[in-house]
Each structure stands twice: as structure tokens, then as C-alpha cells.
Amino acid sequence: MGKEEGVKDTSVSLKPTNQCKTFLPMRVLQVFLMLVVLALGISVVSMHMIKYLKIQNLAPTTLISKSDEITTLESFIKPPSSVWHSMNDSELLWLASMEPRRYEYPFKRVPKMAFMFLTKGPLPFAPLWERFFKGHEGFYSIYVHTLPDYKSDFPSSSVFYRRQIPSQHVAWGEMSMCEAERRLLANALLDISNEWFVLLSEACIPLRGFDFIYSYVSKSRYSFMGSADEDGPYGRGRYSYAMGPEVQLSQWRKGSQWFEINRELALYIVEDIIYYHKFKEFCRPPCYVDEHYFPTMLSIRYSHLLAKRTLTWTDWSKGGPHPTTFGKSVITEMFLKMIQEGQSCLYNDQTSQVCYLFARKFDPSALEPLLKLSPKVLGF
Ligand SMILES: *[C@@H]1O[C@H](CO)[C@@H](O)[C@H](O)[C@H]1NC(C)=O
Q1: Using 50, 70 and 90 to split pLDDT, how confident is the model at 329?
Q2: CB distance 89 to ligand 1 below 6 Å
Q3: Neighbours of 223 (CB within 10 A)
Q4: Among 90, 93, 169, 176, which residue has the most ligand 1 atoms within 8 Å of its CB, making it the best to mutate?
Q5: CA–CA distance from 168 to each of 116, 176, 179, 329, 339 (Å)?
């Protein structure tokens, strides 16, 4: 019986082995599939983990290498196609304060103008600016700071496409305004070819064609930062003795928020920690910090490099805390000509009739007449 069973067994055991030949691959396949699913799951989770960790902790890796490998100089100096990044302010300002000390470039560096728009969100004069920039690729870069939640939707053909930088909340007349300006400067400094930095608002328009503006700024010996020693409650009256010894009353300056500065001054602003803390603490409304921080700290060290005037025309003649806003009805050829050449100032120490390259404030309704007049009057 044992034998029989044994035989039976073998026959029985033979059958399964025969079946095994068909079963085994199915089993293997099942196990294999389970492993594949498990591996996929693990890799998806770990990819997210890496991403998360990179943003949270591995910032230095993202800071130092623009691409994963730097094998050519080109890959290092080429600005990224999008200005979006995951750095916070301390990381950004630190990175932006790096600067080559060797001023003989081993490549052809075409100096560019960085146009930095400090806005709430929409750019009502975008069509005018598009026309202004057309045909001048390679000589400018654009950076837009908005309210943090604003999402712009420019088409890929627009000069503003993907030029929005990571932004934070801004309160009028407070330090957050200067912080936004420093954020714009720092982002623009990351592009090694940016040489001149212009701050503009959504209510600003260009008063001249691109070539004219590029030439005027690039040939200027001075940077256009207002810097006046003004008596009275709106000037020296805003100074606090707590700002000493770094800032003395005689060093206190006032200037327009809307500036144009070169790379050296932009770096000095971005690297500053001493004046920043003094102004943040002791210049609060009615001390409007955006009118004093940069003018004062630049005057202390770089007075000889400042034109001590702004390039942006503004009408303060009506008084009050805000300048006049101009709408559709006032935009005529005569009005624009008056802004363009109606005053006199110094340009490279010579008297000049061309004092302003930009103007504000304009209401969105001004766009239509401006587009009509720009070829004839503004030169673009
Ligand atoms: C930026 O991130 C770093 C690293 O996580 C942190 O040490 C630093 O305090 C952050 N700075 C700001 C302004 O949030």
C-alpha cells in the first residue's frame, strides 16, 4: 500500500509538477507584479520626500548649482529661463550678494538693463511696454513683484511671461516695501549680465524709446537716486537720534522711491544688514522708509556716484501724500512733450533738457491715447 501510495504519490506528485510548469510562471509573475507595484510606490514616495527635503533642508545644493552639473562656464552664467525659485529671503539675498571680483570677463558680456516692476498684480500698460521692448532682446530683463497670491497670465509670446518673482505682502510706506525692492534687486542680480536696475510701478510709462533710454543710462557717470538733505517735518524731521551712530542727522537723506542704480550700488543694498535693522526699527510712519533708507545709506558711502535726482517724473504739485494720477482726458501730445523736456537738470555735470525717462502716475484709461501717440511722441 505504501508502495502503491508511493507510486500514487509520485503520480500525484508528478501531476502537480506538470502543473507547476504552467503554475510557476504565474506565481512568479504575481510576485513580480507585486514587487513592481511596491517599488513604484516607494519611488514615488521617495521622490516626493527628496523634493520636500531639498526645499526644506538642502537649500545649499539648490543655491550653488543652477543645473545639476556645471561642466561649462556657459551653464553657470546662463540665467534660468524662469525666474521662479524656492529660496526664502535670507537665502536669496545671500546668494545675490556673491560677485565676481575679476572684472575681465572670459566671455562676451552684453550689459543689460533690469526693469523691475513693483506692482499689486495687473500691469495695465503692458501693451505699451511690449511695444517698447520689441526688437531689443538681449539688452533687457524683466522682473515683476506682485501681491503674493496674484497669478499673472501672460501668453508665452509676452515679454512678461514667467517674469513674476516669488513675492510677499507689501504695505504702503512700511519696510515691507523696501524688502520687496531688495527682493527685486536680488533676483535681478542673479543674472550676471544685468548692469543697471530700474524700479517701476504699474502706473509708470516710458517717455522715450528703448535705445534712447539704454544709451542715456549706460553713458551716465551717475546712478539716478534722489538724495536731498531737506529741512522741516518731512525731511530731517523724520530722523530719529536712535539711528546713531551709524546714521547721523547730517547724513539723513530723502529721495523718490523710483530709482535707477548700477550693479555696484544694487549689491551694496542687497548685502546691507546694518542700516536695514536701523531703518526697520526707527523709521516707521510718518517716517516713510522707502523715501529714506536707500537714499541715506547710499549717500553715506557712494555720494560721489549719485546724480541725486530721479529719472521718473511725478506730479506732486497738488500736495498730499500721493501724486496726481493722469487719465485719458489729459493725454495729449503737448502734455507728453511738457513732461519730456519741460525742465532742466544736470546730466554728466552738463545742463540738459532731458531729465526724465519714465513718468507716473497714469490711470489704466490712459493706455489707449498713449498707444496712439507713442510712435510720434515717445519714439516707439
Ligand atoms: C530661510 O530658510 C533657512 C533654512 O531653512 C532658515 O534658517 C532661515 O531662517 C529662513 N529665513 C527666512 C527669512 O525665513
Answers
A1: very high
A2: yes
A3: 23
A4: 90
A5: 15, 8, 9, 35, 33
Q: Which three cell numbers, joined as nine digits, stand for 336?
A: 507728453
CA of 2 from ligand 1 middle (Å) equals 80
Task: Name the amino acid, one letter, at 172.
Answer: W
Q: Is 350 in the pocket of ligand 1 (CB under 6 A)?
A: no
Any atom of ligand 1 within 6 Å of the Cβ of 63 = no
- Of 12-21, 248-257, 327-336, 344-353, which gets the smallest average pLDDT? 12-21
Of all residues in the chain, the percent with pLDDT exceeding 70 is 86
The predicted pLDDT at position 50 comes to 54
Give 178-231 pLDDT, tens digit per residue: 999 999 999 999 999 999 999 999 999 999 999 999 999 999 999 999 999 999
The H or E element containing residue 226 is strand 223-226
Instruction: Kindly state the helix (H) or strand (E) to which residue 84 belongs, with its residue range.
Output: none
Omega before 60 cis (within 30°)?
no
Q: Is 79 exposed, middle or buried (0-12, 13-18, 19+ CB in 10 A)?
A: middle
378 CA distance to ligand 1 middle (Å): 45
- Amino acid in position 193: S
91 lines ligand 1 (CB under 6 A): yes
CATH class label, 86-100+109-309: alpha beta
Any atom of ligand 1 within 6 Å of the Cβ of 86: no
Report domain extents, the chain: 86-100+109-309
Segment 43-56, tens digit of pLDDT: 766 666 655 554 44
pLDDT at 34: 83
C-alpha cell at 323: 501724486
Residue closest to 272 by CA, chosen among 248, 246, 253: 246
Q: Please report, in angstroms and rounded to a whole number, the separation of the first and last CA atoms in the chain.
A: 108
